[in-house]
Task: structure prediction
Amino acid sequence: MSGTPTRIEEVARLKPIVRKMREHVIRMITAAGSGHPGGSLSAAEIVATLFFHTLRRRPGDPTWADRDRFVISKGHGVPIVYAALAEAGELPVEELASLRKLGSRLQGHPDRVLLPWVEAATGSLGQGLSLALGMALASRLDGDRYRVFCLLGDGETQAGQVWEAAMAAGKYQPANLVVILDYNKVQLDGPVHEIMDLEPLAEKWRSFNWKVREIADGNDLGLVIEALDESGRGGGPWMLIAHTVKGKGVSFMEGKAAWHGKAPTPEEAKRALEEIAAHG
Ligand SMILES: Cc1ncc(C[n+]2csc(CCOP(=O)(O)OP(=O)(O)O)c2C)c(N)n1
Ligand SMILES: [Mg+2]
Result:
């Protein structure tokens, strides 16, 4: 067969990659003895689609000037990015076990100096969208040579700086900025709607002059691919509200704030890996 793959073919190609990424997340956080499984697992389909379908990148060349940029603003979720880089062949799989170790390139939050595959040091929540907006405006000055994608957490969008960036993007209208919100409904210590409800969320972003599209199930590869295909063609700024499940793929982690920032025990990791292998 030749030509552009169909969406069904892309889903079939990405599915085993997503499963392996989830396995890497469990293994590396267990080896580290600390980390954030919940928000890494909820974003697996989004990050896999970006790295293996959407982003224009050059293997082995992290600073290629025309690469599409991806800023993971919810920096604590970076294990899912390390997992994608390992599957893409940019990081040795064995290195994943060095997560959060002193001197490792794989810090608990991304470090661009140590690891140029990540675009920005993030993890102080609320800052990544401002960085991404700056990159998108720079791209426009450079003749729109690259696109900029940014992943936000839902709890993260309670930070005021997110709305400053939202307002600035509404004014400057960077066509090549695409933001994906990992709307997993859970933040560090409880449900988002109880701590500081975001709703009506789509209306808020629309009123800031953004194009808004909801992804009814952000853990459904076909829906994620479809949304990124549309928004990746320009016409932004785009806000894709992806309804996801925190801890997706591991039944005892799903929807539980307790698994926001805790490593599984070796026994829990074994159960998690069995489930991912069975259903992933
Ligand atoms: C400015 C700032 N305040 C607090 C924290 C601590 N913190 C780390 S993760 C987190 C919760 C984030 O929730 P959410 O955005 O919903 O992340 P996800 O569910 O995707 O893991 C908090 C408060 C931080 N990293 N930065
Ligand atoms: Mg959340």
